[in-house]
Amino acid sequence: MESNSPALLKVENLSKKFLIKKSLLKKEFFKAVDNVSFSLGYNQVLGIVGESGSGKSTIGRLILKLIKKDEGKIEFEGKDIYSLTGKEEKLFRKETSIVFQDPKTSLNPRFKIRQIIEEPLLIHGFPKKERKERVKTAIKDAGLDESFLDRYPSELSGGQRQRVAIARAIVLDPKMIVADEPTSALDVSVQLQIINLIKKLRTEKKISFLFISHDLNVVGMLSDRILVLYRGKIMEKGDARDILKKPAHPYTKILLDSLPPEHPKDRKKLDYLPEVYREEVEGGCVFYSRCPIATDICKKEPQYTKIDNREVYCHFA
Ligand SMILES: Nc1ncnc2c1ncn2[C@@H]1O[C@H](COP(=O)(O)OP(=O)(O)OP(=O)(O)O)[C@@H](O)[C@H]1O
């Protein structure tokens, strides 16, 4: 079930496959995103969680039109993003932005911080005076003082660099930011600072975030709703607190149980879970081979079951 607030972003049946092998006789594709639907409300944080390769970044890139979808529909403020042209397209680019995992590689090392933050304003044709003001405001809003503007990325710590990446992402006053593993390259204490900064921007600037992470603990700290992804498919989506308190899908349970033991005391670590229990079955549940509770019924693909405020891809939900 989606939230009751009107959607800023609405994604319906989104799919994307990548060509992985091509020979004279046939082409082989890999389904990175498989029939995914969700929405993101105004001033909300939606967490997308799943292990490496589950399709999280591909979803992020699809909704920002950085890559092309194969199937499905993506609406931003009620408009199909693939039908935008001219001014509307430009506005969409202005109102959406991205923060990547590693600020070391995402910031141009030859640019001063001032130039890095100013670049989107130049692209969008802002006059000089306004550019200057906006750059100052953005760096302050990202929690750094103006003295950083004359430095280079190499002179900054990892956390400071990520603040610069965030300043650049907010400088055009976007409505939505895709934050793709923004804390994964940082130490735990710095991670918390960045999470708090995102919370602040959401509250004070009313920015919605699509927060992508492999770490359910991190996602749980700031998301209103969570979408759990496995091999491109949604396993479970719903209210963050509900999911963290009572995960309904066996995969979500594994993600929760594999969090460090100092998190809720009663979590036992499922070290005994083998990676693969059984052979995959074509046309069956995508989690079949790794599911601790699968039975023969799981050789058939499950439908999404709606329970309370949640949708779960499991025969046993
Ligand atoms: N351009 C591409 N060509 C071929 N395969 C791709 C391409 N981009 C992504 N993939 C594959 O699609 C799958 C999903 O990748 P994606 O980066 O979305 O996963 P992820 O959940 O974000 O994981 P990670 O955190 O490791 O990036 C992976 O198996 C990846 O190898």
Summarize this structure as a short list of keywords or feature phrases.
alpha/beta, Rossmann fold, 12 strands, 31% helix, 25% strand, globular, binds adenosine-5'-triphosphate
How do the helices and strands line up, and which of them pair or pack?
Layout (H helix, E strand, L loop, with lengths): L6 E16 L4 E15 L3 E5 L6 H8 L7 E6 L2 E2 L5 H10 E4 L3 H4 L6 H11 L4 H14 L16 H13 L5 E5 L7 H18 L2 E6 L2 H7 L2 E6 L2 E7 H6 L4 H8 L46 E4 L2 E4 L4
Parallel strand pairs: 3-8, 3-9, 6-7, 7-8
Antiparallel strand pairs: 1-2, 1-4, 4-5, 9-10, 10-12, 11-12
Helix pairs in contact: 4-5, 4-6, 5-6, 6-7
The site of adenosine-5'-triphosphate (ATP) has 13 residues, from strand 1, strand 2 and helix 1.
Estimated radius of gyration: 21 Å
Bound molecules: adenosine-5'-triphosphate
Q: Give the integer mean of the pLDDT values.
A: 91
Strand order within the widest beta sheet: 6-7-8-3-9-10-12-11
CATH homologous superfamily designation of the domain at 44-68 and 84-231? P-loop containing nucleotide triphosphate hydrolases
Q: Would you identify the regions where 5 or more consecutive residues have pLDDT less than 50?
A: none
Number of distinct helices = 10
Helix content: 25-40%
Strand content is 25-35%
Estimate the global geometry from the Cα principal axes: globular
SSE run: EEEHEEHEHHHHEHEHEEHHEE
Main beta sheet: 8 strands, mixed
Overall CATH class of the domain at 44-68 and 84-231: Alpha Beta
**Would you tell me which CATH topology of the domain at 44-68 and 84-231 applies?**
Rossmann fold
N→C terminal distance: 15 Å
**Number of separate strands:** 12
Briefly note the structural class of the backbone: alpha/beta
What's the CATH architecture name of the domain at 44-68 and 84-231? 3-Layer(aba) Sandwich
